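From the pipeline queue, job 12 of 40. The input is one protein chain; the requested action is below.

Action: predict structure.
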Amino acid sequence: MPRTPSLSSLRLFLQVAQTCSFSETARLANLSQPALSRTIKLLEEDLGVRLFDRNSRNVALTAAGAALMPTVERLAGDFDLAFQALRQTFAGQRGRVIVGALPSAAAHVLPAIIAGFRQSHPHVEIILRDNLSGALYQQMIDRMIDFAITTPPDIDNGFRFDPLMDDECVLVCRHEDAAAMPAPVAWSVFGEHPFIAMAPRSSVRLLTDTAFAKTDLAVRPLYECAQLATVGGLVSAGLGITLLPKSTLPLLGVAGDVAWRTMAPPRISRAIGVARLDKRTPSPAAAAFLEAVMAHAATDARS
């Protein structure tokens, strides 16, 4: 069975055809002339045709060599283009990154990072999926997202978590109510006003439940909301007050209608950071974007 020619031997054939010189091709390829001659001879044996007519002065393509040349040019060009794209992929300049994030991080942390990253990595596609913390961890397990900007995992289940920011909880109320609540506000305020809570099992609800447990408060929510905008609407209508991490405030959707106040000790906060599967090697593009996220957080911490 005839052997399939190697790409290296075809490249040498192409170089001889272009230079019309075995000695010049041997010099350019850093080969001895006898080694080059053997390579071309083996190529001719593999193909079953003579590729060059040559004497002591001239080298010329045969008809078979002339027929082979455009095919080799196309193969070599396609190979070079393919590996050029691969080199860009391996360098993190091409590819796709799927990032999960809490809604607050998706709306107000990642957009600026993505915008900056796209300037330096225009051929990397960034897909952003916002969800609750529990769903984000499941999506990482299912390999649906590369990593997530979220709260720490409940248990160490093969995840790595790198903190990015500390997200303090604050009282949120109407402006007219805030005027009578100088900061820091005592925790007893939540026993004096109707409380508007996030939905059970959300990371914010778990945080506020923990806060009330630490302060020995039995707070029964008047409303339980799946969306922060709903919380904002209820608060601005004077139906109650709430306790939220500061990063969520822009999502309330009622700019100018609500105010916030810091709480008296104990200080309650949550960590927001990068979570990812510890044993999963990220793609070069994902690693580059992760580096951009960490660099952005470091810059914020210094400012």
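Job complete. Residues 63-90 form the longest helix (28 residues).
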